[in-house]
């Protein structure tokens, strides 16, 4: 399915894509207004690139920008850029299609530096020494025990995924 130049991932349909939250919708609108230089009511090609970077953390390809703008021009012939309503539709589709499981897998793999398929307390210590160097060892051990639901001294991918999806972060 193609919405304003954005295609859903293979196997995904509009009904299998999650709905975006009101907070995400507000963030999209805020980014639009922040990137709308001179308050012209639409985003130029360059403004659109900056907006995508702000929302998703990557610079879109020329092809991706062309496809997004092409979808807008099909609907509104006299448009020079992307107006707010179209921007919200396009970015909502993009945001809703982000695969949460893939993000969790990538984070787990970044933590699992030895590619063992599980995390040890040492892996967690290394990560926290880089991202939160002032966190006490006691807090790290407490967090590890909470995430390690079966108590085997290893955080499996399933344990990690549960923590990420269900926000079991009391120890962090």
Please write out the topology.
Blueprint: E1 2-3, E2 6-7, H1 22-35, E3 42-43, H2 45-56, H3 62-75, E4 82-83, H4 84-97, H5 100-111, E5 118-119, H6 121-131, H7 137-147, E6 155-156, H8 157-166
Antiparallel strand pairs: 1-2, 3-4, 5-6
Any overview of this molecule?
By secondary structure, the protein is mainly α. 57% of the residues lie in helices and 7% in strands. It contains eight helices and six strands; from the N terminus they run ββαβααβααβααβα. It has helices at 22-35, 45-56, 62-75, 84-97, 100-111, 121-131, 137-147, 157-166, and strands spanning 2-3, 6-7, 42-43, 82-83, 118-119, 155-156. The strands form three sheets. The protein has a two-stranded antiparallel ribbon. Helix 1 (22-35) packs antiparallel against helix 2 (45-56) and helix 6 crosses helix 7 (137-147). The longest helix is centred in the first third of the chain and has 14 residues, at 22-35. Mean pLDDT is 81; it is low at 1-16 and 168-172.
Descriptive keywords:
172 residues, 8 helices, disordered C terminus, mainly alpha, two-stranded antiparallel sheet
Structural class: mainly alpha
Name the helix and strand elements from N-terminus to C-terminus, one letter apiece. Answer: EEHEHHEHHEHHEH
Poorly predicted tracts of residues: 1-16, 168-172
What is the total tally of β strands?
6
* Rg computed from alpha carbons, rounded to a whole number of angstroms: 20 Å
Number of helices: 8
Residues in helix, %: 55-70%
Amino- and carboxy-terminal Cα gap: 40 Å
Strand content: 5-15%
The oligomeric state is: single chain
Query: Describe the biggest sheet?
Result: 2 strands, antiparallel
**Biggest sheet, spatial arrangement of strands:** 1-2
Per the principal axes of the C-alpha atoms, what is the gross shape?
A: elongated
- Mean pLDDT across the residues is 81
